[in-house]
Amino acid sequence: MKLFTKQQLALRNGQDKPEIWVAYKGIIYDVTDSKMWKNGKHYEHWAGQDLTDEIADAPHTENVFKKFMSVGQLKE
């Protein structure tokens, strides 16, 4: 699996590049086609970030990530 830095992830925020990516538990997911992530924002969450610590506040479980293709791993 391809490794990406936090800086590379940050560029996939729906503003700087056309891709919209988020990370969860070290895996990066492509949410570009999700209408819930339009313009790189989903409620108070922004794309291009690691959302691992924020999932506790979500009205859904981590199973939501099963709908999206993983594109790589977040480099530590």
Q: Briefly, what is this?
A:
The protein has 76 residues and is mainly beta.
Please provide a written account of the structure.
- This protein is mainly β.
- The protein has a single domain (3-74), classed as Cytochrome b5-like heme/steroid binding domain (Flavocytochrome B2, Chain A, domain 1, Roll), CATH 3.10.120.10.
- The radius of gyration is 11 Å and the shape is globular.
- The model has no long low-confidence stretch (mean pLDDT 91).
- The strands form 2 sheets. The chain has a 4-stranded mixed β-sheet.
- The chain has one helix spanning 6-10; strands at 3-4, 21-24, 27-30, 41-42, 45-46, 69-74.
- It has 1 helix and 6 strands; from the N terminus they run βαβββββ.
- It is 7% helix and 26% strand.
